Amino acid sequence: MRKNLISVFSLLMGTLFLFLGNGLHGLLLPMRGAFEGYETTMLGLLGTSWASGFVLGCLLAPTVVKRIGHVRAFSGFASLIAIIALLTGMLVDPVWWIALRAVTGFSIAGTSMIIESWLNERATNESRGLIFSLYIAITLVGTVGGQMTVALGDVTTPMLFMFAGILYCLAMLPTTLSTAASPQPLKQVKLDIPALYRTSPIACVGIVLIGIANGAFGTLGAVFGANAGLTSSTIAIMMSVAIFAGAVMQLPAGRISDRVDRRIVLAILSAIAAGAGFALFVFQPASVTLLLVLTALYGAMANALYPIAVSHANDFASPEDFVKVSGGLLLLYGVGTIIGPTIGGPIMSAVGPYALFAVTCCAHILITAYAILRSRRRAAVPAEMRDSYTTINPGTMTTPESLQLSPRALPQVQAGAADAPQEEQTA
Q1: Are 193 and 204 in contact (CB under 8 A)?
Q2: pTM of model > 0.70
Q3: 391 CB contacts (<8 Å, ≥6 apart)?
């Protein structure tokens, strides 16, 4: 086990720097845009553009890697990300930012998938669970750490953009300097919407709505904070506490969903998230402490929904279909994150910054209503027959390749190993 962890240490360090850069750059752009007075609609398109690029990257990056190899592809993707981080500090223009953000999303998907495929190649059946947990923890720490870095600099200068570029360059080093053999080709994602819907209607509909809410908040939360008069450090804390609270909530919510109908758990969590969003929209708290408390409550509920919905879908699927089902749901989530900022921006422009939480509230109310409706249409899988809940990074912190690393994909991994040529099994 210790030998396996040492062998993936450099890859995990690369992951940490990659997500530090993601957290910093993703929060910096809307904050700088709000300072420049850009329309909220334009700033919402930053999230739409990034999510669109990320989804396309999940679909097309495997073809790029297959043609030019893992190391060259990783170097190319990481170089593009670093260059764009620097360009967005030089070209302070919303149209340029929207166009460049799509390339960043595509490249982030490619770099993440390459790192994940390397981790998957190094993981054994015994170490897979630990490596997967470490990977999830590092992506969380990196994202939150990157967001908190905003408080250490001035968003009105190019300095933080330059620092984001440095972080992306550091992420490149562990993989490009590795002497290990390249892993197997990346897996192509197959999306079969009718089959997914037949497997779990609430998972399909719910995950699109979860993507709408999370995409709107993830992109426009910083814009809300800036327009509401919050300081840079408070905005960074607000965005980070929502992610952290969601991470803390995943395990207890997941364990409850192993014993109770997951649709009821989805309905309850969504109702609480809707209530927190409604309170923020209606009361518009002047107290920073109350604002952070309500944001933490919102984040705890909203960010715990995605893995429960995925687990519910897999309860009705064969164990060997985990990657196929989860990968399809991931891409549906991506569709939601494209829609969320697109509709959230114009609504905030028309109504005001707190209207962001009206958007998330509506999405969560719909999840609650549909989850209750579906719970009356089909019986729940008995608790003893369900798959055990496993934490999964929400949405655009996850690629289809990372699903291969999950312990729940182990039956498929073992089947693939059994079918592989002997020399590949012993390499």
Answers
A1: yes
A2: yes
A3: 133, 136, 250, 251, 254, 307
